[in-house]
Amino acid sequence: xxKVAEVSFRKYKTLYHFDSTKHGSCSxxxxxxxxxxxxxxxxxxxxxxxxxxWLGYMQRRNPSTPxxxxxxxxxxxxxxxxxxTNYWKLILNQIxxxxxxxxxxxxxxxxxxxxxxxWSFVAHDQLWNLVPTTPEVNSSKSxxxxxxxxxxxFITAQHLGLRTFHETTPQNTWDETVEVYINxxxxxxxxxxxxxxxxxxxxSNAIPPLISLATNQGFKLWQTSYSA
Length: 228
Known about the structure:
Helices cover 53% and strands 6% of the residues. The protein is mostly helical. The protein has two domains: 3-72, no CATH class; 82-216, no CATH class.
């Protein structure tokens, strides 16, 4: 190690130095004892910070893959859908709502939430991808992609839900709930969520590319007996 580097290492406690002055001869790096002690004491914090930065880098480099963080680091368990269920239950208690796949009327006290795009693909439980179905339909659809004929019904269902929720909840609750719609669907403002045509355009820009990507990754189309 050069004299200057050696003095700097001792005096200023630089993080590390190489074990040789020649690039081709370097076989290791040597951490300053003070830093080594710090890393040992705060290993969990440093490890998690490094992992988070790495995951952020991977997501930026793979923008077409949704939920990359959850795919690289699989959650130990699925999150509760209580908040999302309460959202839709409030809506179902206000209006008549029919399953977008089977056309059966949904019972506010006995329904399931379907991930329109499979959870194992998107790896999240955002409201913009959830729609009420009967438990039987949800079980049948499972981890499959939705049939094409359901897309327009899905958009209409989302619009109906948003409009009903907007009419029955305080402004601050509405603001908090729709933030994810605005961010993920790249909608300009809240009023656009209540405009069916603008909401349709947002979904039409977001969903088909994701379905194509999911198909390329091996996800199968749901072979259902329910017709359009």
